[in-house]
Amino acid sequence: MKIRRWIFAIFGILILSSAGYWTLKKFNVISKYSVGQPIDSLNGVFVYYNAGCSNIVGRTIKDGYNIGLKYQCVEFVKRYYFEYLNHKMPDSYGHAISFFNPKVSDGKINKRRGLVQYTNPSKTMPKVSDLIVMGQSTFGHVAIVSKVTDYYIEIIQQNPGKFAPSRVKFNLTKTETGLWKIEKERIMGWLRKE
Fold it and tell me: What percent of the chain has pLDDT over 90?
């Protein structure tokens, strides 16, 4: 009998834990923001709060151009490039990780995005408005460089997670071979409108 009670107790704890995790991911129970609320901006382009990373509330289309799924990271960078830099990507679809093409050499054009691509590390230093691409997850993550010094970059991002900030800094170093390296393992490289 005692074993049976323990099994029921463990099973009950697992169900409650799963329900709690699902609730935290699905509903905005803790944050002071509501989904779609502006929380930051760069050059007049807003970053909107999205609660959980998997939250989807529709698609943004401007002038017939697919900007992306509302409040996802891709939607922000494409909206920034469209509104601030007047750039439409030749391929307007794809997850964040697909923005970086590992077959494109450092400083060469990424035809799918219509942007020059730089690898991490690169001969070319990142600059403000570059699009940063991060890998090491199924969908990846993209952000915009909002500040650059000789020692660090700051990025602005949309949908980094329910509790993560919209701005983050990463160390920037120059290697012995003269390459600029953003000290974050996930960063594959950056893209730039020339």
Answer: 77
